[in-house]
């Protein structure tokens, strides 16, 4: 595992290499500021080297082109991740600040992605198309070639796994650039891939900043596809750069996802799920349930119960397994605190939280208390924009129509949940909510990152799908072959 006693290295062409231009940066524990590792501040020259290694890999005839071999090696990666789960979880918890239990779940999820996509690697068949007795026509699903993967810091090992595993399963070579705030577990995935037998050049990991590494990678002439996970603003930049090159790309962006509670909801089930959906990973979750839409007849009761539960939660260093760790950086903390202040100035009421926790143990990190705001109007910025912190807004509604209108009243559309005892109503509302996932009487399925369920955004939450079979097909392109007899 990477520690500050090790030197900064990229993983390129099956080798650990220092950066060409010698720059470094450090990854720190966001709860204490302690340095965890030195990383290569890569430059365009490292990007060129990594892309060349990936290109050489896909251009070389090798056993990797036999799908069954990819099944075996990707399953081996799942096994190695499971064997090293504890060390990986500690690394992930310290690098991101998240509670150890959540990091353990993320590592289990990462192993599951490799296992899940390993199972598909030898099942990517095509169609035979009848065009008459004089022709044989069929389709082949081919890899794109070299895939640039650019990831966010909030679930680094899971995001790397859910993107790299299908890209490799489909036969592509990958260059991953993890976020500089939490890159350590992605480097470990690269090392594990090498050990499991992924041939040199098929998985390269280069570290560094977005403008310095992410953009040159995305627009590199030898990259065939860009898979981006991150913020809407950077997604717009990368998406337009890729579009100018007529290069296919996928964008997994942010959200402002609603939990919609009707008057007949099972509150014993719903309230813990509502709280978990906003405090998991300290709310730094693209799929955070950051809006609580409640039927007016139960609004005050639900707000009181959710507030009580949020107020009882404990912040702390991730390794001690608190309910919430710190926010990732001082910048993120300032953004969260600023958005709450603005909301209060615009008329929102703080039910609970709205501040950093007090005490010596919090002085070295960027902690923020679980926060519930009421008196929020769906036109306020706090109800429309992603906060990316443990901040929930409660908004009352009066009818089914009203609930749908408010649920759809953002430019995002990633996840949503409807809580009702009336199954027919649940389905009717699910059909009308504009988001890539809708849950009824749950928020997620728990355990292992739900690899089976396609995930991605409607509207400005993104473009393309990750997870599930759909997440694999994103990394393939169709060739039609027609033979005259
Ligand atoms: P970010 O957009 O700041 O960074 C994401 C990645 O892009 C990082 O690797 C970063 O270094 C790189 N980057 C930054 N600027 C760049 C530029 N100009 N050119 C090229 N690359 C650049 O996002 P973040 O702060 O790391 O992550 C938080 C965001 O990610 C939130 O909006 C969250 O909702 C979103 N997210 C989405 C999903 C999803 O699956 N939909 C999952 C996790 C996070």
Could you explain how this protein is built, in words?
There is one protein chain. The protein folds into two domains: 10-253 and 464-484, Aldehyde Dehydrogenase, Chain A, domain 1; 258-456, Aldehyde Dehydrogenase, Chain A, domain 2 (3-Layer(aba) Sandwich). Helix content is 38%, strand content 19%. It has helices at 44-59, 67-83, 85-96, 100-118, 156-169, 184-196, 210-218, 232-244, 267-279, 299-311, 330-345, 381-384, 400-407, 423-432, 468-473; strands spanning 10-12, 15-17, 24-28, 35-40, 128-129, 135-143, 146-150, 173-177, 203-205, 225-229, 249-252, 257-261, 289-295, 349-352, 371-374, 391-397, 417-419, 439-440, 462-463, 476-484. Strand 17, helix 14 and strand 18 form a beta-alpha-beta unit. Helix 1 (44-59) packs parallel to helix 7 and helix 4 packs parallel to helix 5 (156-169). The radius of gyration is 23 Å and the shape is globular. The protein binds nicotinamide-adenine-dinucleotide (NAD). The site of nicotinamide-adenine-dinucleotide has 30 residues, from helix 7 and helix 8. Nicotinamide-adenine-dinucleotide is lined by residues 150-155, 159, 177, 179-180, 209-211, 214-215, 229-231, 234, 237-238, 252-255, 286, 386, 388, 414, 462.
């Amino acid at each position: 595992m990477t520690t500050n006693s090790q030197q900064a290295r990229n993983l390129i062409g099956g080798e650990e290499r220092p950066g060409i231009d010698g720059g470094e940066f450090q990854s720190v524990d966001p709860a204490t500021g302690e340095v965890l590792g030195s990383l290569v501040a890569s430059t365009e020259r490292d990007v060129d080297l990594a892309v060349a290694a990936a290109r050489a890999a896909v251009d070389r005839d090798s056993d990797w082109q036999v799908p069954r071999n990819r099944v075996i090696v990707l399953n081996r990666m799942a096994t190695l991740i499971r064997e090293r789960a504890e060390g990986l979880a500690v690394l992930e918890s310290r690098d991101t600040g998240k509670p150890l239990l959540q990091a353990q779940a993320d590592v289990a999820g990462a192993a599951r992605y490799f296992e899940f996509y390993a199972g598909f690697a030898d099942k990517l068949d095509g169609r035979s198309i009848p065009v008459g007795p004089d022709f044989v026509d069929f389709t082949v699903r081919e890899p794109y070639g070299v895939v640039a993967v650019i990831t966010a810091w909030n679930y680094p090992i899971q995001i790397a796994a859910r993107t790299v595993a299908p890209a490799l399963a489909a036969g592509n070579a990958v260059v991953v650039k993890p976020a500089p705030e939490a890159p350590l577990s992605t480097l470990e995935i690269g090392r594990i891939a090498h050990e499991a037998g992924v041939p040199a050049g098929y998985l390269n990991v280069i570290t560094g900043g977005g403008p310095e590494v992410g953009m040159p990678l995305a627009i590199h002439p030898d990259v065939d596809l860009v898979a981006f996970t991150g913020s809407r603003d950077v997604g717009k930049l990368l998406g337009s750069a890729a579009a100018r090159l007529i290069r296919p790309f996928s964008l997994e962006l942010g959200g402002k996802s609603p939990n919609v509670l009707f008057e007949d909801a099972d509150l014993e089930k719903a309230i813990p799920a509502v709280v978990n959906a906003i405090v998991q990973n300290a709310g730094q979750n693209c799929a955070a349930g950051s809006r609580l839409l409640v039927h007016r007849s139960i609004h005050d009761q639900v707000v009181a119960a959710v507030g009580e539960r949020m107020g009882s939660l404990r912040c702390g260093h991730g390794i001690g397994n608190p309910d919430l760790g710190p926010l990732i950086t001082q910048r993120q903390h300032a953004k969260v605190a600023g958005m709450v202040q603005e909301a209060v100035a615009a008329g929102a009421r703080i039910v609970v939280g709205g501040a950093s926790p007090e005490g010596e143990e919090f002085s070295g990190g960027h902690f923020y208390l679980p926060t519930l705001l009421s008196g929020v109007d769906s036109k306020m910025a706090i109800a429309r924009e992603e906060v990316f912190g443990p901040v929930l807004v409660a908004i009352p509604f009066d009818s089914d129509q009203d609930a749908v209108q408010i649920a759809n009243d953002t430019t995002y559309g990633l996840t949503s949940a409807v809580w009702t005892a009336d199954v027919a109503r649940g389905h009717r509302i699910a059909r009308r909510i504009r988001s890539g996932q809708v849950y009824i009487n749950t928020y997620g399925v728990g355990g292992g990152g739900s690899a089976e369920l396609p995930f991605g955004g409607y509207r400005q939450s993104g473009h393309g799908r990750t997870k599930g079979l759909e997440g694999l097909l994103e990394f393939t392109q169709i060739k039609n072959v027609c033979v005259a007899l």
